[in-house]
Amino acid sequence: MTKYILMVLAGAVSFGILSSFVKIAYQQGYSPAEISFSQAFTGALLLWLLARIVSPGFSVRSVGRRQIAALLGTGATIGLATFYYYVSVHYIPASLAIVLLMQFTWMGLLFDWLFFRKRPSLMEAGISAVIIGGTVLAGNLWGNTDFHVSWTGIFYVLLASVLYAGYIVANSRAGKHMPNLTKSAWIMTGSALAIGLVNLPSLATESHLGFALGQWALFLALFGTVIPPVLFAKGIPHVGAGISGILMTAELPVAVITAHFLLGEQLTTTQLIGIVIMLGAIIAMNRYRVRKVKPVAAN
């Protein structure tokens, strides 16, 4: 169980470093549609190439159309979550956006309860509350009296949070008997298709397509659409949707720390306290989950 927990955490860390680099790309004139679509499209190509190398004998016929449709739908959720999150940071501060995105933690547990009757334990609910409190501190919102924020940005990031939670639940149940790279390739194909369809008019008229954008696409694809999905595809089915949602909150402290060192953004004592609270809660949940699973494995 420990190695699967580490896989989910590593995927979250990979996601966490992206926002700083995306902000740099925005400074160079690229749009959320260009960045998110090129990232997903390049990632899908890389995953299909790796899938053919690692599992050359795998046949799609052994899976069925329903499974493929489920994987494409799973990809659509993470693709649109990424796109709408990228859009939101144009309207609201990055610290507020990441804090609101972290609401997928309790949303994942709620979805598991509502749709699959998997009621969260008191421990899971309590740790979720602690993590949510930690995100408020880590986002530097404690004592902030400036409420002049864009409701458009808040809408987009909350929409991204709902889609992110749906992705976690869907990924934990779709394509369980498929090779991980092939599963990830189908998911990223769905991601690229969804982002492309939503942004078709703007992408058709963009003038930034070229080698420079390709460099950004390759870098962001590796850390945003290749490494995390592969790790999530392997780890989430073993860890479970609810716990995975909690583990993936590691994206927040990583994003804050990366922004501090790469972009020179302020990192206050309050934020550090919030990060410590979150990491402590995540570690506590890991220990709880491992102790809970060990007796079952012994039987």
Automatic annotation (TrEMBL):
InterPro entries: EamA_dom (IPR000620), EmrE-like (IPR037185). Pfam families: EamA. One of its GO terms (cellular component) is membrane. Residues 3-137, 152-286 form the EamA domain. Keywords: Membrane, Transmembrane, Transmembrane helix. SUPFAM superfamilies: Multidrug resistance efflux transporter EmrE (SSF103481). It comes from the Bacteria. The chain crosses the membrane at residues 37-55, 67-86, 92-115, 122-143, 149-169, 181-200, 212-232, 239-263, 269-285. The keyword Transferase does not apply. PANTHER family: ACYL-MALONYL CONDENSING ENZYME-RELATED, SOLUTE CARRIER FAMILY 35 MEMBER G2-RELATED. This is EamA domain-containing protein.
